[in-house]
Write a structure and sequence with these properties.
The structure holds two protein chains of two kinds. Chain A is of the alpha+beta class. Chain A contains three helices and five strands.
């Protein structure tokens, strides 16, 4: 199980708490984690990645272990600390500015 | 006694205002979907407990919400476990999937180049008069979608973009289908409007569409006086008893057509400004129409700081200012295109919301006004409905 932290609006949409746990089959990549999250919470489909293309929505960010993974390829392996559940994968709404 | 429900979409959530038929004392429920932009919410004319909501965010995209109990509870359509069992083990979760049909194609971009269509959000949801599971959605970038399963899945009516879509160009507010009018006498006929492409009509249920912009003049925005598309239509209104008579608030000019949009004539008459956004028709007087003049395209607030609804009782040209109960000094709010509505009671109720967060109600056809609420987030849409 990996841990995923959701932003306020997505946790409300998914009717869950700040953090969810998701089973991801190896290899545990960023894309596999997002696919598993969407499978567990289908209401999140299209809110993190665009329908069809699976492209990251431009104002969504992925952080883990103090690293910004937002622009990494989706087949990037997640850090070991995320895979073993010590650290969460964080899905974050980008700063709005203004 | 009848009950009235007013659905209000705002920049930061949805609100439900309810009253009895006197329309004096109101209950306010909300914010629903707090923090999200609610471009539009509308109840089914067949089943008022069925409400569809367009919920969107620059961060997390489009969500469609549905209530089957008049707004007490909400769900994204198709989210029951048995409905989510998709092929290959992947749940469906497609109520927010708006995918353009076929080759995506391009439209005119701000710099004159061609730009691919990109879905951004649903501006307007129009439930069918004949089936509570059928709803039309007007979206940005401009296109029409339809659901026949209560919002679980959406399919584009792609014939619309074949009506010279390559020449459509976004204005400052984007390029969206913001108006959808269904002809109750002819279910195959619909009218829609797009900023900044114009008005269009279908006679075959949405398979093919025809631009209906003859007579519109937009010399400051569109040099070609005969341009078939490209006009910045802000809103169209129709009385259900007279589907051939349309009224339009264009960027500049208030217009009227007596032949279902084949030709338009200007009826701005004595308005202090013919720029504005909403236009609506009295529920029982098909020739009584309402607009809210705004100073100009450069100054989106009422002329002279006076918030005035103008009413014409003869289909345009002769207008009277409705001011009783509305602020007549230091008022600099705007009223957006989907933020006016009428109810079916007698006397007819008229409602509008402002970018300052006020929602006003007139229970006497516009003669006098009272604020229902004063301090909501900026109002994007207002829909009034009489409940059984």
């Amino acid at each position: 199980m990996i841990r995923i932290v959701l932003p306020f609006h997505l946790r409300n949409l998914a009717r869950t708490g700040t953090e969810v746990q998701v089973e991801v089959a190896a290899p545990v990549t960023l894309g596999a984690a997002l696919t598993a999250l969407e499978a567990q919470y289908p209401v999140l489909r299209g809110t993190i990645r665009e329908h069809g293309t699976n492209k990251r929505r431009s104002l969504v960010r992925f952080f883990a272990c103090k690293e910004d993974l937002s622009n990494e390829p989706t087949d990037t392996a997640l850090p070991e600390a995320v895979v073993n559940g010590k650290e969460p994968l964080m899905i974050v709404g980008a700063m709005a500015g203004g | 006694m009848s009950k009235i429900r007013v659905l209000v979409g705002t920049r930061k959530g949805a609100f439900i205002l309810t009253s009895d038929g006197s329309r004096k004392n109101w209950d306010v429920s909300g914010p629903h979907f707090a923090g999200w932009e609610i471009y539009h919410a509308k109840g089914s004319p067949l089943d008022p407990n069925r409400i569809y909501v367009s919920q969107s965010s620059g961060w997390f995209g489009q969500i469609i919400q549905r209530s089957d109990d008049g707004g007490k509870t909400w769900n994204t359509p198709g989210s029951k476990p048995e409905e989510l069992a998709g092929a290959g083990g992947m749940p469906q979760g497609e109520s927010n999937k708006f995918t353009y049909e076929g080759e995506i194609g391009t439209h005119k971009w701000y710099d004159g180049s061609q730009h691919p269509w990109e879905f951004k959000r649903v501006w307007h949801l129009e439930p069918s008069f004949t089936d509570p599971d059928t709803v039309y959605a007007g979206v940005e970038d401009a296109a029409m979608f339809k659901t026949t399963d209560g919002g679980k899945t959406w399919k584009e009516l792609s014939g619309l973009r074949k009506a010279k879509g390559q020449l459509w160009q976004p204005g400052a507010g984007g390029m969206a289908v913001h108006t959808i009018i269904l002809d109750q006498k002819n279910p195959k006929r619909m009218f829609i409007a797009i900023s900044a492409a114009g008005a269009f009509r279908t006679e075959d249920g949405g398979a093919t569409w025809k631009p209906i912009n003859k007579g519109l003049k937009s010399q400051f925005e569109l040099p070609d006086p005969d341009a078939e598309v490209g006009h910045c239509v802000h809103r169209i209104a129709m009385h259900p008893s007279r589907p051939d008579v349309l009224f339009m608030q264009k960027h500049w000019d208030v217009m009227r057509s007596d032949n279902a949009g084949d030709m338009w004539t200007e009826v701005s008459g004595n308005l202090p400004s013919d720029f504005g956004f909403p236009i609506d028709v009295h529920a029982h007087e098909p020739n009584t129409i309402y607009v809210v003049p705004i100073k100009s395209d450069s100054e989106h607030f009422p002329p002279d700081g006076k918030l005035r609804v103008y009413r014409s009782r003869n289909g345009g040209n002769e207008w009277e200012a409705m001011t009783k109960g509305l602020p007549q000094k230091d008022c600099y709010v705007n009223v957006l295109r989907d933020a006016m509505s009428v109810d079916q009671l007698d006397p007819c109720g008229v409602y509008f919301g402002t970018t300052g967060g006020q929602v006003y109600c007139s229970a006497d056809g516009g003669d006098s006004w009272n604020p229902i609420v004063r301090d909501l987030p900026a109002v994007l849409s207002v829909e009034a409905q009489v409940l059984p």
